[in-house]
Amino acid sequence: MSDDEFGFSFEDEDDFAAATTAVVPSGKRDLDHADSEEATVSSKRLKTGNDLKTAPSPSIVLANRILRERFGLNGFRLEQQGAITRLIEGGSAVVVFPTGGGKSLCYQVPAVAFRYQDEELGYRKPGQSGLTLVISPLIALMKDQVDALLRRGIKAAVLNSSVTRDQYLVTQDDLRNGRLDLIYCAPERLNNEGFTASLKDLPGGIRLLAVDEAHCISEWGHSFRPDYLKIARFAEEAKVERVVCLTATATPKVADDIRDAFSIPQEGLFRTTMYRPNLRLLAEANTKDTDYKAKLFTHLRKYPGPTIVYVTLQKTTETLAVELTAKGFRARPYHAGMKPDIRGKTQDDFLVSSDMIVVATIAFGMGIDKPDIRSIVHFDIPDSIESYSQQIGRAGRDGKPSVCMFYLATKDFYLRNIFTYGDRPSLRSLRLLLEDICSPAHANLKAGDTFTLSLYTQSKETDIKATILGILYAQMELKFKLFRAAGAIYNNYKYSVKDANALSRDASPAASAIKKAPGKKGPKWTQIALEELAKSTRIPRADLVRKLDEWNDRGTIQLEKQGVENTFRLERPLPSTPKEIDAIIKQLDEAMEATEKQNIARTESLLNLITSKRCFSRAIADYFGESSDVSEVCGHCTWCETGKQVILPNEPPQLPDPVKVQKLLNTISVRDDARLLAKIAFGIKSPRITDMKLAQKDVFESMNVCNFQELLRVFTKACGM
Ligand SMILES: Nc1ncnc2c1ncn2[C@@H]1O[C@H](COP(=O)(O)OP(=O)(O)OP(=O)(O)O)[C@@H](O)[C@H]1O
């Protein structure tokens, strides 16, 4: 099972009645403010203690007491208290605080409060306190949070594929016996039937569901993740008492989507401004002839100190870091394709450095809480205003002056389009997908039956990127209610021994079975047929997997897993007539087209923001519906400082050159997919292009300064479509 293989998922939602549990029955307990006992618990949004004319409510008192006693902090920040007391009182909330604004406490304090209420006020019987389930996509950060909670004596655990068998068993036992206050997992876990079933049966139930990075639930958000839509369905089915959705960025529309998904009323929204008066927001446009690297070097010399330079492509992080180093800067690359230990070292070095420059893709930044980052440079255009604001928000957390520079160039848009147009599958791809799912082999399956597919193979065969396949599956699951994801398993395992002594010492039944397993042994790798081994030894497959994972974690072996197979449980028989199948293809294509348009519009909004005649800070505040937090002009952006508009040079796309079009048609014989040909001309890779080694041909990327839609038109005609 894996948290990070094919993430798919989602939608649906509902109205789980916000718990009716009144929090603190009066007269029952001895909190430190005697006068608070008479206070009325308001169901309305609470103001901070300072704003209240009357005595603080019991839940405010309890929240503050937990903050002091368990977290060692003196007072709440921003809107923390309002959100926390609302949750303690049984309401649900959406929390939009900037990065580092203290969102975690918004679920950690209530999680502890429930047990206080039960133990001190006899609110519930021992073992019936239920727990707080935290869903977060950031597996690495979960572990840090859990360790910090355990140090404070708060019972928390992580459940993901990285835990060892022993930890897993302890956590399961703790869960069953109501010993945990918080449990963390990734959204993909909700695709695992066994896991969701165990959560639905918890003693005391789920008191609070905390959804981190909640903007991922919105198709309007900049990083929509289909698995997020399944969370709302789960919340309803598991009868979760209340929910808190947390995010650092949400436009009013995204916040509405989140509220709708979980039926959270407007007064449950707690938002604080992202506006940071210590950030200077600068922007400059470059023409295609500008020596923009020289400009970057000059800028970095002028503004020394810890800096992040954001670029779009992984390879640019490496080439630019080399060039910066050659110029005497202390620079390192960072992207998701690098080895975890190298990435970790770069991050650790950066955290303690006073002069380091990290040239990074968007992968760098999540969870980096370095107060003295002095400068953020956008060397390429980010995909949206949300990404831009989140990234500049990493500068100057210490409140000291910091500079954010945005370099704008036409070339950036071609680069962005590679992602946007690359994501949309062709009609041919959608048809192949539906034909595979609704194949004759599945024709006799009834509701409740399962079928298994390899999405990895399907991605290659249908020419649909894995991430997009995830979104399509989620739509078929939630919009068309065809089936539900029931789990994923790896079929092929191989390992290479790194510590033979440790391996020979392990005499557990699973270890012995694996060591004795018949399998292909090469000089380095031993292959294991796990399914057969489980059958022949009668040791559950999950035990064998956990043993291999445990050895891998401990460095006893190096493990490689391949061949993920995904299982789906049917909600109804699959469509079988061409008419039904065509209708689904049409709707999926329309949804993909809408996403494509939306992504283009999102980048354009950012371009408009930077190039319009107005204050950047004010424009950002308007975008996020926070206008009242920023005065008319900030006084420290390019517009405010110079009064001059940043103008993107007029470098329009070229028309497709007929000679180049003909050359591409002569080189590539594919005629069943015009979009594929347009992708080759533009320089966009896809599973089929990789498989057919078409990216190595000289026609690949030969028309990368053309308009993609224009290329599509030309090749559609050439294919006679
Ligand atoms: N009321 C408070 N008083 C003092 N420190 C606080 C308070 N609330 C949070 N913090 C501290 O602020 C830091 C950031 O908090 P946290 O990690 O919860 O932020 P976040 O909003 O979740 O950020 P991110 O968006 O990066 O996940 C932590 O070190 C936390 O202990």
Automatic annotation (TrEMBL):
The molecular function terms of the Gene Ontology recorded here are: 3'-5' DNA helicase activity; ATP binding; four-way junction helicase activity; hydrolase activity; nucleic acid binding
EC number annotated for this UniProt entry: 5.6.2.4
Q: Which domain of life is it from?
A: Eukaryota
Q: Where is the Helicase ATP-binding domain?
A: 84-268
Residue ranges of domain Helicase C-terminal in the record = 295-438
Q: Which compartment or compartments is the protein found in?
A: Nucleus
Query: What segment(s) does the record annotate as region Disordered?
Result: 28-50
Q: Supply the Pfam families for this chain.
A: DEAD, Helicase_C, RecQ_Zn_bind
A single GO BP term for this record reads: double-strand break repair via homologous recombination
Top EC category: isomerase
Describe the reaction catalysed, as an equation: Couples ATP hydrolysis with the unwinding of duplex DNA by translocating in the 3'-5' direction; ATP + H2O = ADP + phosphate + H(+)
InterPro entries named among the record's database cross-references: DEAD/DEAH_box_helicase_dom, DNA_helicase_ATP-dep_RecQ, Helicase_ATP-bd, Helicase_C-like, P-loop_NTPase, RecQ_Zn-bd, WH-like_DNA-bd_sf
Coiled coil residues, start to end: none
Predominant location of this chain? nucleus
Which SMART domains does the entry mention?
DEXDc, HELICc
Instruction: Tell me yes or no: is Hydrolase among this UniProt entry's keywords.
Output: yes
Q: Give yes or no: UniProt keyword Kinase.
A: no
A GO CC term attached to the entry: cytoplasm
Keyword terms of this UniProt record: ATP-binding, Helicase, Hydrolase, Nucleotide-binding, Nucleus
> What family is this protein classified in?
Belongs to the helicase family. RecQ subfamily.
Identification of the protein by name? ATP-dependent DNA helicase
Source organism of the structure: Clathrospora elynae
